[in-house]
Design a protein that fits this description.
The protein is mainly β and 644 residues long. It contains 10 helices and 31 strands. It has 3 domains: 88 residues, Nuclear Transport Factor 2, Chain: A, CATH 3.10.450.40; 105 residues, Nuclear Transport Factor 2, Chain: A (Roll), CATH 3.10.450.40; 350 residues, Copper amine oxidase, catalytic domain (Beta-galactosidase, Chain A, domain 5), CATH 2.70.98. It has a 10-stranded antiparallel beta sheet. Strands 10, 11, 12, 13, 14, 15, 24, 29 and 30 form a 9-stranded antiparallel beta sheet that branches. β8 and β9 form a beta hairpin.
């Protein structure tokens, strides 16, 4: 841990983009109650920082009044409200009814929904009818969002369509015994099962599939300890949620909906703090399943807008989730009743060795080779959304690189299958147990303020020069850059044939060779959506239509599927924003990136899925005069310690 003096901050030193403290969240709840805005049937969906004016932050203004944006929902009237609260004046600044929407489901509703199903007479009757089981105490219920399929009830009720499983005992892996063919429909306002949909009877799969250490019989015995030690402490300093490390400065943010975010990311170059990103955050994700059978076909979870990625965050554990000398950050939220909810160790930060940073061996010099080891700063958070785990990892490097990576693990969403049959739309992973094919699509919002707010995005394609007198040997190729001028023109896809990338530049700041200062966006693995454009989930997730979108900065445009995707009919979010076709050249721009992972399950993904990785890289491109890691000192040479 860093010394206490480096970890504590006072209100006077608080950065205006730091998330709300526990006391601030509690004060917001009190202010709203005192103002008569909270009834016995009101739920607090989220309470988060209302970000101050960007220009004030860039100007370094201090003493900005802290404000909060809260989302409330009244179960009795099926009504959603947005409210802004000033913590300094203790006043409600605005109160707005948002008609016809369903906000994010709360953590309390997940638990209450499970109990509603377990105690439902209709569900008990269906379970007895199909499986002869009357005791529901071992039933596991995953809430699962209802989606929107054009029916009237989708617009008039707050619904969930849970998936149910049956444990053999209170601690086994219940996911391996899915109750296929039975789906209760729950009205979350009344918190009762309003009907049970029955599609047929499938035997419960016979396997166990346990993974917990307490239930494993044999472990490997050939693993030796691997210790990471930093006897002089870490190289970072922390004040509140402000971090400084290896020329980097930034603020760690966190909300109930987005989870982990980075704010006001700067790099100190030549004694000057140069702005790169104002905010980088996950705005939405959707997990569409590719099985058209009745139990499975409505599975498409919008895990950010329907569940809240921050609300689902884990309390991370030293030596398990994080390894090394760790600095943790707590997340301060509230439950749906307004009571304080602190997720301890929600964010983990540490340093990692990352192999060779740079190296050269000059055979002519006596002291060769010159080699430097790479060190990176890791800021991470992990969320559990029922069966799946998502790890969100930001990496900052000594050479100016910025990397984002999502790690996917957890348990597949499983179904039962008839003995002796083989599924078409998924794979058997154990006897009578199958996993449907599915995709994971994520959308990131990158608000660039590269050396100032006026930036331009360029599309960069590497193209071959036609053969001719200027290319006599047919070997020539070059990078062709095209500035993107309007929102519609900026909508685009990856293109392997031309190694397509995007470059964000500040045309008003020239580097030492006369070119605009820039950063290159390098995509990683990606996919195209495989569902029809007419699929119901795609109407609500139009952000998957393109890999890249660019829009001018607007403080009200923050989520790729809109502010309220839960049970929405679609048409909101990125498509609506960019249909305005506003100019985006030499202005304050936001770069949106959609990336997808296509998962065809395999037996090796059972019972717990080994981690899959997906993400992207931001690489300085004309931002620095030379390799910014040229000044990293050489490592101390060690005596040989090796196994022979």
């Amino acid at each position: 841990m860093s010394p206490p003096s480096a970890l504590n901050s006072s209100a006077a030193n608080m950065h205006p983009l730091e998330p709300l403290t526990a006391s601030e969240v509690s004060n917001v709840v009190i202010i709203l109650r005192d103002a008569g805005k909270v009834t016995p049937t009101t739920r607090f969906v989220s309470v988060s920082l209302k970000e101050p004016n960007k220009a004030d932050v860039h100007a370094g203004k201090t003493g900005l009044a802290r404000q909060s944006l809260a989302i409330l929902f009244d179960n009795a009237t099926n009504s959603c409200y947005e409210t802004a609260v000033c913590l300094a004046s203790q006043k409600v600044l605005s109160w707005k009814h948002i008609p016809g929407v369903q906000p994010t489901m709360t953590i309390d509703e997940q638990a209450e929904c499970e109990q509603a199903v377990i105690h439902s007479p209709e569900f008990k009757a269906a379970l007895k009818k199909h499986h002869g089981i009357e005791d529901t105490s071992l039933v596991m219920v995953d809430i699962w969002s209802a989606g929107n399929y054009g029916s009237e009830e989708d617009r008039t009720k707050r619904l969930a369509r849970p998936l149910c499983f049956l444990r053999t005992d209170p601690t086994d892996n219940g996911y391996v015994r899915p109750i296929e063919g039975i789906r209760p429909i729950v009205d979350l306002n009344e918190m009762k099962v309003i009907r049970v949909e029955e599609y047929g009877t499938w035997d419960l799969p016979p396997g166990e599939g346990n993974y917990a250490a307490s239930r494993m019989k044999n472990f490997r015995t050939d693993i030796k300890p691997l210790d990471i030690k930093q006897p002089d402490g870490p190289s970072f300093t922390v004040e509140g949620n402000q971090v400084s490390w290896q020329n980097w400065k930034f603020v760690i943010g966190f909300t109930a909906r987005e989870g982990l975010a980075l704010h006001h990311l700067r790099y100190t170059d030549g004694g000057k703090d140069r702005s790169i990103l104002y905010k980088a955050s996950l705005t939405e994700m959707v997990v569409p399943y590719g099985d058209p059978t009745p139990t499975q076909r409505r599975k498409n979870a919008f895990d950010v807008g329907e569940y809240g990625m921050g609300m689902c965050a884990n309390s991370l554990q030293l030596g398990c989730d994080c390894l090394g000398l760790i600095r943790y950050f707590d997340a301060h939220l509230c439950d749906s009743h307004g009571d304080p909810l602190t997720i301890s160790n929600a964010i983990c930060m540490h340093e990692e060795d990352f192999g060779i940073l740079w190296k050269h061996t000059d055979r002519r010099l006596p002291h060769a080779p010159e080699v430097r080891r790479s060190r990176r700063l890791v800021v991470s958070s992990v969320s559990t959304v029922e069966n799946y785990e998502y790890g969100f990892f930001w990496y900052l490097y000594q050479d100016g690189n910025i990397q984002f990576e999502i790690k996917l693990t957890g348990i597949l969403s499983l179904g039962a299958y008839a003995k002796g049959e083989k599924p078409k739309y998924g794979n058997l992973i154990a006897p009578q147990l199958y996993a449907p094919n599915h995709q994971h699509f994520f959308n990131m919002r990158l608000d660039f303020d590269l050396d100032g707010v006026n930036n331009t995005v360029q599309r960069v394609d590497v193209v071959a020069e036609p053969e001719g007198k200027h290319n006599e040997y047919g070997n020539a190729f070059y990078a062709r850059s095209e500035p993107l001028k309007t929102e519609v023109a900026a909508r685009d896809h990856l293109k392997l044939e031309t190694a397509r990338t995007w470059k964000i530049v500040n045309p008003n700041v020239k580097n030492h060779v006369g070119e605009p200062a820039g950063y290159k966006f390098l995509p990683g693995d990606n996919s195209f959506p495989l569902a029809s454009p007419n699929a119901w989930w795609r109407k609500r997730a139009r952000f998957v239509d393109y890999h890249v979108w660019v829009s001018p900065y607007d403080e009200t445009e923050n989520f790729a599927a809109g502010d309220y995707p839960n049970q929405s009919s679609g048409g909101d979010g990125l498509l609506k924003y960019t249909d305005q076709d506003r100019p985006i050249e030499n202005t304050d721009v936001v770069f949106w990136y959609t990336f997808g992972h296509t998962h065809i399950p395999r037996p090796e993904d059972y019972p717990v899925m080994p981690t899959a990785y997906i993400g992207f890289l931001l690489k300085p491109n004309g931002f620095f005069e030379m390799n910014p890691a040229n000044d990293v000192p050489p490592s101390e040479k060690k005596a040989k310690t090796c196994c022979m």
